[in-house]
Write a structure and sequence with these properties.
There is one protein chain. Helix content is 39%, strand content 20%. The chain has 328 residues and is α+β, with helices and mostly antiparallel strands. The strands form 3 sheets. It has a 5-stranded mixed beta sheet, covered by helices on one side. Strands 4-10-9-6-7 form a 5-stranded mixed beta sheet. Strand 2 and strand 3 form a beta hairpin. It binds dinuclear copper ion.
Length: 328
């Protein structure tokens, strides 16, 4: 017989087994609860169904060689029960998980943005304030952080188990993730797509610092030229400013204040000016000619690294934005 002590010993032993990583983001606790519910429902019905099977096996076993069971022509009550109950359970799971999904994948408007580039076989990260990191990401505690991610080569996957977030990182496209860290500490970062020989080495750490420590970390960093300024240098170096004149009198559209707004293409289609449109316009400008302008923009395919394109995007975002006005 187990004594009080024995049970407690077992309990603390169980707690020592790392069944799951710590829950360290605002969404992690609820995602765990959803998984507990799914596991509990699965366990409950597995046990229920197998118990009934064994019970019936014994109860309705064949007792003699020529025994013939009576015909059964259905039971309305039973059929309604096994239709309505599982349907209700599915609706509960659907409503909860989709509301959780929507919250988990829509960054709050006040998020701090950090840029991620995956490449064989490392993570390059850059903060808008300028600092760059490789396989390490420093973030402030209790602040929503939005990651804007792309790949320089093949498909990678950005995964921080303790934050319960994961998303693929694709070449030629931007995906985003967000999280709000709820506990200071160091958490594992993984690549979850088999991206080549050294895929297992594509791992890193996320350091969650108190807002004060984070500000100190930012200040101590050598590369403190903001991303938009780096983008502005590229913009001028490649003479983009010759055509994209701020007052709109150039041969290309003015880029001031256009980020996030819809732009009319020559085809009549309206497309929001986002990271993807800028990426496409740089690589295949003829595929997105802007209404009212001659399609004379040359392609810059292969001329920029993904990090430089992100800096250009940061610059275009900053044009006409409030932050920029404050920075000047
Ligand atoms: Cu990148 Cu696996």
């Amino acid at each position: 017989m187990m004594t009080q002590w024995g049970w407690q010993g077992l309990g603390s032993l169980a707690a020592m087994i790392p069944l799951q990583p710590p829950a360290a983001s605002s969404i992690a606790g609820e995602i765990d609860q959803l998984y507990y519910l799914l596991t509990a429902i699965t366990l409950f019905f597995t046990v229920l169904i197998f118990s009934i099977i064994f019970y019936f096996m014994v109860k309705y076993r064949r007792r003699s060689k020529d025994e013939k069971p009576p015909d059964i022509h259905g039971s309305l009550v039973l059929e309604l029960a096994w239709t309505i109950i599982p349907s209700l359970i599915c609706v509960v799971i659907f409503v909860w998980s989709s509301s959780l999904y929507i919250r988990a994948y829509h960054p709050p408007a006040n998020s701090t943005e950090i840029f991620v580039v995956g490449k064989q076989w490392m993570w390059h990260l850059q903060h808008p304030e300028g600092p760059r990191e490789i396989n390490e990401l420093h973030v402030p505690l209790g602040v929503p952080v939005k990651l804007t991610m792309t790949s320089q080569d093949v498909i990678h996957g950005f995964y921080v188990p303790s934050f319960r977030i994961k998303k693929d990182v694709l070449p030629g496209r931007y995906t985003s993730l967000w999280f709000e860290a709820t506990e200071a500490g160091t958490y594992h970062l993984f690549c979850t797509e088999f991206c080549g020989t050294n895929h297992p080495e594509m791992i890193g750490w996320v350091y969650v610092l108190s807002p004060r420590d984070y500000a100190a970390w930012l200040a101590s960093n050598e590369n403190s030229e903001p991303m938009w300024q780096q983008g502005e240098r590229i913009f001028n170096h490649y003479t983009c400013n010759y055509c994209h004149v701020p007052d709109g009198s150039g041969r290309g559209p003015s880029l001031v204040g256009i980020f996030g707004k819809p732009e009319k293409l020559a085809s009549g289609e309206m497309r929001p000016v986002d990271e993807d449109l800028i990426h496409q316009a740089l690589n295949e400008p003829n595929s997105v000619p802007v209404a009212g302008y001659a399609p004379i923009m040359p392609t810059f395919k292969g001329q920029f690294t993904e990090e430089q394109i992100l800096q250009l995007i940061a610059y275009i975002k900053s044009l006409g934005s409030q932050e920029r006005a404050n920075a000047k």
